């Protein structure tokens, strides 16, 4: 590990030197690539430099203790030694996490699909609430949200909604939201006051470039039509909505949120690419079933990951046995505590696996 850290430190210094050269600053593509590499290495290098300093502090304290006779001074040196040793241990753990293999999709924007599952209208209402939850969370992160398609029901619910979230680290945080979300509450339409259980599924997919997923034109049927539902003045009067049917998989995607057919077509293709890439990801996960079971992450789409219990005001994440009694805040987009806990559990599982393999 420490040989690798030394190599990364040397590489970081090389990058800093290169960034100051006129030939690099004049080459925008090279400059951007170096800046990205510098940004990725900075947290590792800073932690490693602090680690080396703390190691030196430990050695200095030991050395000074050996030649010190004053009891008060010795006590002070012992305290400093204990503090430095503790920090060395913390930094070692931090560096192990920083050196874990990075998910290549972590920096990508995401396409989120929410579908109402069991529970009829109540599931559709909850799907709409979850959509708002993610929009509020995205706003708190200063991310941009674009709706690709929504299938609404009359009472304010959504049978299905697809939307894109663009922003730094969107996939690295939101990937833990994929799975089945369960709601337990008394529906407004329930006169007897009985608690109903409904479900929705959430799929968080990284946005992929055209080069990452090649779609053969022969495999697709493109239909254009008039948009349905609410919209601007032009939406219902022009053939602006686009539906794509992908023959090999049977996937059908639809986009109608833009007035321009061209824009809707671009959004529909972005959604189709994400879905096809997601299928490939799922196949890879299935091939590594044991690995997936040992860690939190973009797991099985049919896995029940969370329960929102309204009568008790609690939210439980079943993967990490976390229960929080702040349902109102969570439904308003305050999910950072849950995401942080999922990230920590995922990292701990990966570290455990590395230690076992090692």
Report what the structure shows.
With 358 residues, the protein is α+β, with helices and mostly antiparallel strands. The protein contains 10 helices and 11 strands. It has helices at residues 2-19, 22-25, 28-66, 71-98, 120-140, 170-174, 261-287, 289-293, 327-331, 336-357, and strands at 110-116, 144-152, 158-166, 179-185, 196-206, 220-225, 241-246, 251-255, 304-309, 314-317, 322-324. The protein has an 8-stranded mixed β-sheet. A hairpin with a 4-residue loop joins β10 (314-317) and β11 (322-324). The longest helix is centred in the N-terminal third of the chain and has 39 residues, at 28-66. The radius of gyration is 26 Å and the shape is globular. The N and C termini lie close together (12 Å). Residues 230-236 and 290-295 have low confidence and may be disordered.
Total DSSP helices? 10
User: How are the strands ordered across the major sheet?
Assistant: 2-3-1-5-4-9-10-11
Estimate the global geometry from the Cα principal axes.
globular
Straight-line distance between termini: 12 Å
Poorly predicted residue ranges = 230-236, 290-295
> Strand share of the residues?
15-25%
Bin the helical content.
40-55%
The assigned structural class equals alpha+beta
SSE arrangement, N to C: HHHHEHEEHEEEEEHHEEEHH
β-strand number:
11
- Summarize the main sheet: 8 strands, mixed
């Amino acid at each position: 590990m420490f040989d690798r850290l030394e190599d990364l430190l040397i590489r970081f210094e090389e990058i800093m030197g290169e960034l100051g050269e006129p030939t690099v600053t004049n080459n925008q593509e090279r400059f951007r690539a170096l800046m990205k590499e510098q940004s990725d290495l900075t947290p590792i290098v800073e932690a490693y430099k602090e680690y080396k300093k703390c190691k030196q502090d430990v050695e200095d304290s030991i050395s000074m203790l050996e030649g010190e006779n004053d009891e008060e001074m010795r006590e002070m040196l012992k305290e400093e030694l204990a503090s430095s040793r503790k920090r060395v241990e913390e930094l070692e753990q931090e560096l192990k996490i920083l050196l874990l293999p990075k998910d290549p999709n972590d920096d990508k924007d995401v396409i989120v699909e929410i579908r109402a599952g069991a529970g009829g209208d109540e599931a559709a209402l909850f799907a709409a609430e979850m959509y708002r939850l993610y929009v509020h969370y995205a706003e708190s992160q200063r991310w941009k949200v674009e709706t690709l398609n929504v299938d609404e029901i009359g009472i304010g619910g959504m049978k299905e909604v697809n939307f894109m979230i663009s922003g730094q680290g969107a996939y690295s945080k939101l990937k833990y939201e994929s799975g089945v979300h369960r709601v337990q509450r008394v529906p407004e339409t329930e006169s007897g006051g009985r608690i109903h259980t409904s479900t929705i599924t959430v799929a968080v997919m990284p946005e992929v470039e055209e080069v990452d997923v090649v779609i053969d034109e022969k495999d697709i049927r493109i239909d254009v039509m008039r948009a349905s539902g609410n919209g601007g003045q032009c939406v219902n009067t022009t053939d602006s909505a686009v539906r794509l049917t992908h023959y090999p998989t049977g996937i059908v995607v639809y986009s109608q949120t833009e007035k321009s057919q061209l824009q809707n077509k671009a959004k529909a293709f972005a959604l189709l690419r994400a879905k096809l890439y997601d299928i490939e990801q799922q196949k890879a996960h299935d091939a590594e079933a044991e690995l997936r079971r040992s860690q939190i992450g973009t797991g099985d789409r049919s896995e029940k990951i969370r329960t929102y219990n309204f009568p008790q005001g609690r939210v439980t994440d079943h993967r990490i046995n976390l229960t929080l009694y702040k349902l109102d805040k969570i439904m308003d987009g305050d999910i950072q505590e849950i995401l942080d806990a999922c990230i920590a559990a995922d990292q701990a599982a990966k570290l455990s696996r590395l230690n076992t393999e090692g």
